[in-house]
Design brief:
The protein is of the alpha+beta class and about 60 residues long. It contains two helices and two strands; from the N terminus they run H-E-E-H.
Length: about 60
């Protein structure tokens, strides 16, 4: 994996989003392909929730 530190703008956006998540119940959005930060949202569409649940490995 190639490590690339966050730029100052990326870092600022991520810190703001994390504060919004902690203080205001905002949802953090990540790209499914590379887990890069995409921003925040008030609500998550049902399809995104279903995809997140399907991505969790389950062993019976």
């Amino acid at each position: 994996m190639d490590f690339r530190p966050l730029s100052e703008l990326e870092r600022r956006n991520l810190v703001t989003a994390l504060r919004g998540n902690a203080d205001g119940n905002r949802v953090l959005l990540l790209d499914r392909k590379d887990t890069s930060f995409l921003g925040t949202s008030e609500e998550v569409p049902d399809e995104e929730v279903i995809n997140a649940i399907k991505s969790v490995p389950c062993h019976y």
